[in-house]
Amino acid sequence: xxxxxxxxxxxxxxxxxxxxxxxxxxxxxxxxxxxxxxxxxxxxxxxxxxxxxx
Length: 54
Description:
2 helices; mainly alpha; flat
């Protein structure tokens, strides 16, 4: 099996967030908590220009 590493790009965000939620659920995060909005907000910061990151 070949593993290829690359930088996250904005079009990968939906898949990346789903994978992260799956991981957090496996580690015990509760199902009734909607993690997607917070993760989307946090990860989308990396795609903003440095001058508007807050």
